[in-house]
Amino acid sequence: GGRREATKVSLMKFGKAGMVQRWKIAEDEEGKRLAEAGLLQRKPPRVSFFLNEKNNAVFVGQVYDVYSGTAEVYCNPSRCNLSKFSGLTLRVIGNGKMYSVGLKSDDDNVEYIASFPTTKGKWETIRLPFSAFRRVRLNAEASDEQTELNRGSITRIAIKYSKPKMAPERDDGEFYLALSYIKAYRTQYEPDFVMISTSQVSTVGLGSQITFEGRPRPQSLPAGVVAFKAEAEKNLRNSGLSYCIIRPGELTDQPGGTRALVFEQDMQDDDISQGRISRADLADVCVKCLLDPRAVNVTFELTESTYAPTARTPTKEISPMLETLKPNT
Questions:
Q1: Whole-angstrom distance, CA of residue 103 vs CA of residue 135
Q2: What three-state secondary structure class fits 220?
Q3: Would you say the C-alpha torsion 198, 118, 116, 110 has a positive or negative sign?
């Protein structure tokens, strides 16, 4: 067969030369309408959008109105056809407030908006399916007909911050959102690639040596090998293919199918140091992940249960465990 289409494509990689310059700061249209109607004069929001020293775009400023107001930056992409895609993913770090993405297509009087929360000071990958975008009429000229977004012709992409609807007077109006990229993703029903990594990758950045019974584990991989495995994981995630990354514990030659298996994410250092799994069980999980939609774009540690073989039923069906895992993107 031919080469498979990538499951994700990059729409905006903000570190790329000239990308941030394509974005513009939107005028406060609501404030202008209120002023023209003689209802309210308000200070326009302070908005900046620039590339920082880490090659991330930064959307920062303050909305001054106590009860309402929106800050927005936007881009008018050329030939943006997302008809074969299912949604957007964004890599962001914010200040703990809500933000939104706005899309326009055929009708400039209508916008489709999806909101997302941020965790203060933490990088996150935000997944916004197109089904989550709600239709918003921007003025009286917009049709009342509940038309869907024309994904085949996206003419405008916007990033927005608005004062919260609940207790807006308690919000200081300050916003900060840094963005690494915006991508479009396809619906995928099985992984393109299953990678066997190592649970020791999970300890990268923890600054601790993996030990077993108080001593360095004899079969622990050299630090250089772990670094290469971590780099390989990163390259796979950025490849555009759908993937499943399995981080097994220490491999053994014990027979498979005799113990319950443990599927974990964000496993603690002590648990990683003691985790083991048979090669037979690992091979079985790999084959099953190739055919399971729940394994798409997930990374997890895989070990066998530390309970006695008779205490827990051996794992036969892995789908319930995969169901509990959180996709990366």
A1: 10
A2: coil
A3: negative
